[in-house]
Design a protein that fits this description.
The chain has 304 residues and is α/β, with parallel strands linked by helices. The chain has one domain: Glycoside hydrolase/deacetylase (TIM Barrel, Alpha-Beta Barrel). Helices cover 36% and strands 10% of the residues. The chain is built from ten helices and nine strands. The strands form three sheets. A four-stranded parallel sheet has the order 5-4-3-9. Helix 4 links the parallel strand 3 and strand 4. It is globular and about 45 Å long.
């Protein structure tokens, strides 16, 4: 059993890696900022994850909407504050699912966190809205034409600057997700600051749009056990991703044909695609991607 636990720890630590900017090794990542104007690369060293926490069955998390909380230990343990950076990695199972996404669910599902929707067959499109680059309307037009719903993770600054686009997302049946108030690394904050980054965005959307947010994506894909628990206690599910690629640099956009091929080749049941809305390539190939993915036997689904 000791060898088994050690092996699990080694696999999980190796696969859950940081990706937030300058590389495209298949691990993907969210690069919508070091701030709201995005594109700042960073890497985070991942250290060993407690094997007991990996193998224990997920605990039930009871979210408390809008309440700032001090996290409580799980089953007598102290919650880790160590920063971990996520990336989906380059190893896949026999269903084409990234092993790192499955490992994330196994390790952290008890905090109402997921990187892949294991019990679903459909694909979920999500967009990180670090700032507006004039392409969101085109993306919304394509989604409407193809009858596909998506999740748009926005910052407070984005909502303040683009209220008409945010209202359109809501009106057309998309989910608006919480990407925090100011795009800071959640595990680097105090518990109070972490909760405020989440609750401040929740409250703004409630006051200005009458909208209740239920999903949260941590900036840069960085988290700790403590930040995941705080997120759950604030009433949100943490949603990472099982596919992402280097699409965020507006000055160096990926080739459309190669990108379309990559997006289709990596399709898998329960996939959560992370795309950046600032990408001209993404806006241009979105319709073809949806059509080809459907021809390959997949469908797209909105979370409820």
């Amino acid at each position: 059993m000791k060898k088994y636990n050690a092996a699990i720890a080694a696999v999980c630590a190796a696969l859950i890696c940081c990706s937030c900017g300058s590389r495209d090794n298949g691990s993907g990542g969210s690069a919508s900022g070091g701030g709201i104007n995005g594109g700042v690369g960073a890497q985070t060293t991942v250290t060993k994850i407690n094997t007991d926490r990996m193998t224990r069955q997920p605990d039930t998390v009871e979210p408390v909407q809008g309440e700032t909380v001090q996290p409580e230990p799980v089953q007598g343990e102290t919650l880790s504050t160590e920063k971990i950076g996520y990336g989906q990695g380059v190893q896949f199972d026999d269903k084409n699912r990234p092993q790192a996404a499955l490992d994330f669910n196994n390790c952290y599902g008890k905090y109402n966190a997921q990187a892949i929707r294991e019990n679903e067959k459909s694909i979920l499109l999500t967009f990180d809205q670090g700032y507006e680059n004039g392409l969101t309307a085109q993306i919304l037009d394509t989604l409407k034409e193809k009858k596909v719903k998506a999740v748009f993770f926005i910052l407070k600054d984005y909502a303040e600057r683009n209220p008409q686009l945010v209202q359109r997302m809501i009106d057309e049946g998309h989910i608006v997700g919480n990407h925090s108030v100011s795009h800071l690394s959640m595990p680097e904050l105090s518990p109070e600051e972490c909760a405020e980054e989440i609750n401040g965005m929740q409250q703004y959307m409630k006051e200005k749009f009458g909208y209740d947010m239920t999903l949260f994506r941590p900036p840069m894909g960085e988290f700790s056990e403590q930040s995941l628990k705080i997120t759950a206690d604030c009433g949100c599910r943490t949603m990472l991703w099982s596919f992402a690629y280097a699409d965020w640099d507006t000055q160096s956009q990926p080739d459309p044909a190669e990108s379309l091929k990559k997006l289709n080749e990596r399709a898998h049941e329960g996939a959560i695609y992370l795309l950046h809305s600032v990408s001209q390539t993404n806006a241009d190939i979105l319709g073809d991607f949806i059509d080809q993915t459907r021809k390959n036997g997949f469908e797209f689904e909105k979370l409820t």
